[in-house]
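Problem 3 from the worked examples.
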Amino acid sequence: MRAAGLLDGKVVVISGVGPGLGRGLALQCARAGADVVLAARNEERLAEVAKEVGEIGRRAVPVTADINDHAACERLAETARNEFGRVDGLVNNAFATPPLKDLTRVDLDAVRRGFETNVLAALHLTRLLVPALEETGGSVVMINSAVLRHSRRTFGAYKMAKAALLAMAQNLATELGPRGVRVNTIAPGYIWADNLKWYFDHLAKKRGVTAQHIYDENAATTDLGRLPEPDEVADAVVFMLSPLARAVTGQCLDVNAGEWHH
């Protein structure tokens, strides 16, 4: 599946570019016609993804940055403007998972650090790019999580942060709508990428079963009987960034193969 042409001539800034969804976001935006500014802490990984974008025929500018560092975020925003003269889209994909412990036991300082990365850092980067997005009638997409849809034990601190991110996105949609900027949210569940494959291998060894058995157990909870891959989640983001979603703002789209209905 290709969304060729949907983002022709556009420039998209993507934070949290890793080997899974971050890479998928960069490549799918490029395949849709966009040039990209890629941000992450791992310089080597950024270079690898930037090279792949170049092989598609689009331009990628890697910026080594920790989004918790205000100066680094300012440098990221400045680089995007200086290199391309415009910004049409921002995808806030960087995140941190707080300790997976019950709320009655979790370390509160760790919870605060999770809020810093998942919510406040995303807000800061968005604010920095609002003037550029306003000039182009641009779009912001927050990458959230299916943790919004359940209240399982040990996920409380993570759900708190992601619920706050959703509330922030909805309020930003109201504030920025009159300025021509749309703000939406994508909420994926499990994404079938390297990190999840490693985790399923770990669970399989712990339980004495195959990794395929773990996959099948989890896939059985979805309507489609499988787990989404990075490109499939990224395609939903491309849609939200594109003119096809020009009347869509303040919304949260679940991309989970039907695991949760909302």
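Problem 4, a separate protein:
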Amino acid sequence: MNDEDDSAPGGRWRHTARLAACVIFLLGMFYLVAVARVIDIDGVRSMVAATGPAAPFVYVPVSAVLGAILIPGPILAAGSGLLFGPLVGTFVTLGATVGTATISSFLGQRAGRDSARALLGTARSDRIDAQVERHGLWAVVGQRFVPGIPDAMASYVFGAFGIPLWQMAAGSFIGSAPRAFVYTALGASIGDLSAPLAYTAIAVWCATAIIGTFAAHRGIKHWRRREVRREPDIESTPEETSRPLVCSEGTDPHA
């Protein structure tokens, strides 16, 4: 599809409908697995535990796929802590988190990358691509620190905006480490939430939430300042290119 087709009303409508269908599908999946609970998480944990010594290696891909279909990460991480304890469980949770981020980002690229570029326009998409190239890794890390944003949903969006898979994997590993410990430790101490491990997990969660909120606030302010500075330059470009050539007296412009 060429640029003219993308900019036409019919082309924009098709891209909008495609993105809307993706969003509705993800929201429907979230309702089924997180609200209606059509998947029995306890049953999944029992099946994984039945594999014996291989259970941690089985739980990583199973949890990664379940996370990609929007089963809440804290539930999966708590199950990891319950099955494997705080130490092994944290590494299992991290492996599953990286897997979920990679799967979700890949699907986001396949489903929404072209439509997102078409709706944003070439100029804005190129600016976003340049920002992704320079700061994509740390955008993923920062998102993992911000509380209240589902990681899988964010990974789908990152994929639609063109974040490379290696940045998704590395960024989710770095940024998810504190919360992986938090939810896994809480799952491991589910029988005694007054244990020091539970208090430590809660303290780590509070610290990462404060750091993430502060960093997100500064990042948004910085991005807005950059956009405000760019707007006058973008608006003045057509006028400058259409301005007639002015020559000094006695000078032939075609000489």
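Solution to problem 4. Residues 234-242 have pLDDT under 50 and may be disordered. The CA atoms of residues 77 and 93 lie 5 Å apart.
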